[in-house]
Design goal:
With 217 residues, the protein is an all-alpha fold. It is built from nine helices and two strands; from the N terminus they run H-H-E-E-H-H-H-H-H-H-H.
């Protein structure tokens, strides 16, 4: 849904700064409850599930212990969701003052990779990690994450430079330092997650090692 809304917004804005679309003002209000619920849902999954990625996980003895274990395991994701609610939502609804709907739409399209993340976890939960569907989903995740979450940021700089008549390499110098710092802060976790995805893809697609030779009786 976020990707669809993002595509509608970005494709409707021909001027990357001044053009507006009503979805750019409405969708952030819809997204905030999702991020809050997603943190809660991930915690419930961590607390109750008995198997994750093929190994047993004993449920923590108390709610406090469960919360601590959850934060140790998924701290980066929780911080990401908190930043979406506490930082990005005020920026999108108040600070922008109707400017940059195109960029907001492009950022929403980053969620295009999320269904493949979820499907991969479901397939692992049901022990289908050795199927062709899991490999196909892994390839789709790798491509969509690279395009929509990593290469997205150079594209945003290029789009701004095209509007202003600037080459790509001169765009960072033409922007206030706070804008570049915000882009770097958003890109950093994407690079970390992409590295994890690449490592998982390498394990998924590499050829299995040859069986050891049989010893003569």
């Amino acid at each position: 849904m976020a990707s669809t809304a993002g595509y509608i917004i970005s494709s409707s804005c021909h001027h990357v700064i001044d053009d507006q679309h009503w979805l750019a003002g409405a969708y952030p209000h819809f997204a905030v409850p999702y991020f809050i619920y997603d943190v809660y849902a991930m915690f419930l999954c961590h607390w109750h599930r008995g198997q994750v990625k093929g190994h047993e996980v004993a449920p923590p003895p108390s709610l406090r212990a469960a919360a601590g274990a959850y934060l140790r395991k998924d701290l980066l994701m929780v911080l990401h969701h908190a930043a979406m609610v506490l930082v990005c939502f005020p920026v999108a609804t108040l600070w922008r003052q109707g400017k940059g709907d195109f960029f907001l739409g492009c950022l929403l399209m980053a969620e295009l990779s999320t269904p493949f993340v979820c499907l991969g976890k479901v397939l692992i939960l049901y022990r289908r990690q050795h199927t062709a569907l899991h490999k196909l989903n892994g390839a789709a995740l790798l491509v969509t994450f690279l395009l929509c979450r990593v290469l997205l940021f150079p594209y945003l700089y290029w789009a701004y430079g095209r509007q202003r008549g600037l080459p790509l390499l001169r765009v960072p110098g033409a922007l206030p330092p706070a804008y570049n710092a915000a882009a770097a802060a958003l890109l950093a976790p994407q690079l970390y997650w992409f590295a994890l995805i690449c490592r998982g893809a390498w394990r998924l697609f590499r050829a299995p090692p040859p069986p050891p030779p049989r010893q003569p009786p």
